[in-house]
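Two proteins follow. First one:
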Amino acid sequence: MALNRFGTNLIFGCVVALLALIAAASIYENYQPHKDKASETAEKRLAEFELLAGKNPQNPYYPTQIGNTYYDIGQYGKAAVYYERSLAIHPQDPNVETDLANCYHYLGQHDKALETLDKVLKYNPGFSQAIFNKGRVLIDGKKNTKEGIAAWEELLRADPNSPHKAEIEQEINQLKAFVK
């Protein structure tokens, strides 16, 4: 009888495990379409902007939007190519160049990112996003916390009403506590 009870429990345990696997597979399968919809949306946007860029090759908006789409899905190398195309059509766009610098940073090309940000800051010295990103590249990419803090302090002087002022000040204070 003990063996019978053991066998029954074993079968019951296997059935429960099988049901758990089926439930997990069902949850995974139902989750996948959401992921596919996001990539499907990105692919659709890319196709639309590629078509428009082909029809209007001198319009920098389309390669910028293609770059933004690739950036949003984490394909920074492809995004950089399109940002560079946009800048070839319309040089010195601080928003596009700052996004390009971010791509370089995410690709591990920190010197190139800093070079691009410095270029932006030469023709647009108070451009807040470029100053902020320069601090981020210095701190996270180059591991130069002191210069990164200096960049952010410059940002707070250049843009004292920055919507991110409190966050920046908090991060500066945290970093200063560790740099001493």
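Second one, unrelated to the first:
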Amino acid sequence: MKRRDALAWLSRGLAAAAASVVAVPGVQYIAGTMQRAPSVATRFRRVARLADVPADRPQLVPILGQRQDAWIHHGEQVVGRVWLVRNAPRDGDASAEANGEVHAFTSLCPHMGCQIQLRAGGESFVCPCHKAAFGRDGSRLPASETGERNHAPRGMDRLETRVAQDETSGEWWVEVKYEKFQLGLTRQVPCA
């Protein structure tokens, strides 16, 4: 074998090695983007002590969780926010369980995903982007009540909640099963 042929074979081998070093991560990148979008697992999360949720005013609380993108693992961080609405206590019943009925609604407007805010007085909610209005029960308010067109296709997205007692401290906690829903639809459809 001539020296020139040996150098040609060596350069081809080096080129193939360099191409494989670039190709393997490239294939992993393309395969990673074709996988289903990572989401926050839907499970019950403790969001607030029941004693800290007033019965007379809705309260906005963050949902904390871990998130994983294609290669990056994000630790505990805010993954969403919910409005907690606690019903007024029933007369003559002071037990925590009886006074613990709490409803949770996502803070994202079902129209385009803007953050829903509490109106002055705390009797209803409003989306600042397009003036969509919602009652304290999360229902979509008609234009006859607000004087403006309501762009929201449905009421606020209701989340599953429960009130649970901590085994060690005995305190009552509000737990929410957090999930996100598709925007612009007339019914709640969870995001994949």
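SUMMARY FIELD: The first helix runs from residue 3 to 34. The beta strands are 44-49, 59-68, 73-86, 102-106, 117-118, 124-126, 133-135, 158-165, 172-177.
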